[in-house]
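User: We ran a pulldown and think these components assemble together. Before we commit to crystallization trials, I'd like a predicted model of the whole complex to look at. Sequences follow.
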Amino acid sequence: MELGYTSYVILGMLRKGPKSGYEIKAKADISTRFFWAISYGQIYPELKRLEEAGLIKGASDPAGGRQRRVFSITASGERALREWLMRPGDLHTELRHEGVLRFFFSDALSEKERRELLQTMRARHDRLREELTAIAPEAEAARKETGDYLGLLTLETGIAYQELFVELCDRLERRLNEIESDSGGAEDV
Amino acid sequence: MELGYTSYVILGMLRKGPKSGYEIKAKADISTRFFWAISYGQIYPELKRLEEAGLIKGASDPAGGRQRRVFSITASGERALREWLMRPGDLHTELRHEGVLRFFFSDALSEKERRELLQTMRARHDRLREELTAIAPEAEAARKETGDYLGLLTLETGIAYQELFVELCDRLERRLNEIESDSGGAEDV
DNA sequence: GCTCACATGTAATCCGTTACATGATTCT
DNA sequence: AGAATCATGTAACGGATTACATGTGAGC
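Assistant: Here's a predicted model for the assembly, 378 residues in total across the polymer chains.
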């Protein structure tokens, strides 16, 4: 069977322990979401596919009268996960960043509007930085409990990433100060 | 008509001057590609749609017997572009990063394999950094010619972005040094 | 004569989101 | 009683990539 990145997110999550589809989503939302997001629309069909392929095994585990299926990774699933983790070749990286895109085309804006754009962008990353920082205590607790420090390190990476963008916005603003204003009047639009 | 981000990439590119679909792709490949990639499969159908909507205007401009259609942005297209550039609300940001994803799940790997993963990831970003640095002289020349400094600033931002990831890999390696090795032997898998 | 860059386009496919539909349990 | 959370799933849609198909012109 052909596995996509989403399949590996699920396998990876299940390797950390058996989970329901709902739990997988919840865990992903506070960890992988910031560098690989997944949605219910992928998770449930994919769980079915993975089970049919024998990479995971589902068991009914209702909480009261509430239906619930918990999935565990199989030996075959672990092999598939490891195969991916060690697979040679290029690592997929993709960025879609509307802020930088708008900035690139902002010669259609006035200087003032361009600076406002940078401010909006800065605020956005600052908020994301805060969001991640708020998760940190949970990750720290999880590390102490399970000894798994990778979640914490990944979160730190996510925070540093948002911090960089905040700094990049500041840097761009400084560069605009160097270039614009003093040349005042030569305004487009 | 509904416009997607790709439409605005095209409009933005055409605002900098009339271009063929081929030229739009070429320009995008050395500028927006790193934070918003586009492909021929989107460009040509989208050019048709945008022309039908009156946001751009195509003109036949063959180079010899070689067919070629050059598109210019219309007043209506400029309005649509500006509307987007100034549109309030959240800026879309999306990151898909296989390296960090694998790292997050690398408890299924040995310490050695995990460090190799970091090295691969570092090498990848270092290469991308170089790729971008190689474009810099072109961007500098373009600035001198056209006076458009936004391309240069955006490129600088792209370089800083790749540099950050190189640094993040180094940081992760240092953190592993703090955490692992000294606790040696407590190895998973 | 061959290869590379210029040039345009379509079809199949994949990947993913959003919206919808449904229902139980827990907490206030 | 009502809201929030737990829980599962599907259908429609949108966005983008890949592969394919075709052809010219320039330089070696």
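Residues 4-6, 37-42, 63-67 of chain A lie near DNA strand C (CB under 10 Å from a C1'). That may be worth checking against your pulldown data before setting up trials.

User: Thanks, that helps.
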